[in-house]
């Protein structure tokens, strides 16, 4: 399946989870804001690239194109429909879920969309290295936690903290896990912490009770390994609360955009040649 | 004075503090490592751009040029001498200070130098906006603290925390201070925390007893405002400790490199057009 075909399936509401869809293509998280907050959110991404790695931006009021254009290579694109499911935020609270955003983003609105990197890419690399993430094997949703790592503030976005995802590994595999995921800078890169001590330092009291997703099974001797997570931008919107006037849209976790970029493009992103 | 003239003064050991030297030109912090650790340190900068904003890199073993070349525009350059004073680190400890690095970086060494942004630029902007930093007025060294903000790990660089600098301001001026410094993304940008509560959240127990630099005088009603600080890379080297085999060099704090870049180049850096 091509990325374009995957986006059409999402647009036609034929799927609700993009995990494993169109293998080889990068998937993206989403945040859409009124243009007057776009510069602040852009700065937030540039200041916090591990949790909010910026892949692309839509011009104000234009839902049909992404810069850089290599990210979405067809004219037949609409950021208001090409994710399977959206969340609507008002004053920092999620007030609803919608299959598309046509009714809330009309021709006169000047919304700006941000595409944020997603960990699906490095999960494929881990699996290829014989280090398949537990939640892939067990068919569960990855465990996610609120951490105490501050999201460094930018404009109206103050006071938020990073969300982290967790995958269990044997202590002797941690260095290899770090090495495999390190190059994926635009999709969260290497872990931010590991071990039971690492969990404590992140302020996570009970690893077996995640704040989002599902608890993961630990095998004998395994320890938790934590990565920054693309749900973090939604926490930034929650923390901004009433400082944001107007609606904000995000993707429903797990319901991502399939882009035209592949892992090869990640290396070019890393070198700044896209 | 041109930037080149300022570098020659540093090379000839005619100055020991570059604050206020060659106004208008950007100054840079330094870290020099054996090339085998360069990729890890590069990743550390890309993952932590607020405390470690990368301005330029020297090719392995070549002390005479910087990429991008617009940063240093003359052939008459030597990163081993053009800072007024250097620190030498071994196994995570500062073991000495030298006026130049000729004796320790010889023709057969493959060292890579990293130039890191410095807050002098936004201090000029604050002064122009009528918000001159206290330490400029009192002729003291800015107060610096070890914070609890984790430096997100990269390769051998694990377990470090960010250093922050502090300037006192009136609470009603904080939003303007944030606005003035926000665009300076490559020189630490806007504050990471502010207020007495902010100090507590950073784990700073006594603002009047900084870990580096000098205590600052607070006027009636003023609160502390904290920025990420370019001394952080040296903390990363200390934390890496014995994981780094060989010598590491850094600048002596306050003894910076004057580059050929000006504030205008900062805007181009921000837009990725350098």
UniProtKB/TrEMBL annotation, chains A, B:
InterPro entries: D-Glu_cyclase, Putative_hydro-lyase, UPF0317. SUPFAM superfamilies: PSTPO5379-like. GO terms for molecular function: D-glutamate cyclase activity. It holds the Pfam family D-Glu_cyclase. GO terms for biological process: glutamate metabolic process. Keywords: Lyase. Belongs to the D-glutamate cyclase family. PANTHER family: D-GLUTAMATE CYCLASE, MITOCHONDRIAL. This is DUF1445 domain protein. It comes from Aspergillus sclerotialis.
């Amino acid at each position: 399946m091509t990325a374009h075909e995957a986006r059409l399936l999402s647009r036609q509401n034929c799927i609700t989870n993009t995990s494993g869809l169109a293998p080889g293509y990068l998937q993206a998280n989403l945040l859409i804001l009124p243009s007057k907050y776009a510069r602040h959110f852009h700065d937030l991404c540039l200041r916090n690239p591990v949790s909010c790695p910026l892949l692309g931006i839509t011009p104000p009021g234009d839902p049909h194109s992404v810069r850089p254009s290599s990210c979405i290579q067809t004219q037949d694109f609409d950021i208001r429909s090409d994710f399977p499911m959206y969340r609507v935020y008002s004053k920092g609270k999620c007030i609803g879920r919608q299959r598309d955003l046509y009714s809330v983003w009309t021709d006169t609105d000047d919304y700006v969309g941000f595409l944020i990197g997603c960990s699906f890419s490095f999960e494929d690399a881990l699996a290829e290295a014989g280090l398949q993430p537990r939640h892939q094997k067990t068919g569960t949703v990855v465990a996610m936690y609120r951490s105490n790592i501050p999201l460094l503030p930018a404009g109206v976005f103050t006071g938020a903290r990073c969300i982290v995802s967790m995958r269990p590994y044997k202590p002797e595999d941690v260095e290899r896990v770090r090495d495999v995921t390190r190059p994926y800078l635009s999709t969260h890169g290497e872990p931010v912490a590991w071990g039971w001590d690492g969990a404590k330092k992140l302020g996570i009291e009970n690893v077996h009770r995640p704040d989002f997703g599902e608890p993961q099974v630990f095998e004998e001797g395994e320890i938790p390994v934590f990565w920054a997570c693309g749900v973090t931008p939604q926490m930034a919107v929650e923390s901004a609360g009433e400082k944001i006037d107007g609606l904000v849209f995000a993707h429903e976790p797990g319901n991502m955009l399939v882009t035209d970029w592949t892992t090869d493009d990640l290396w070019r992103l890393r070198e700044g040649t896209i």
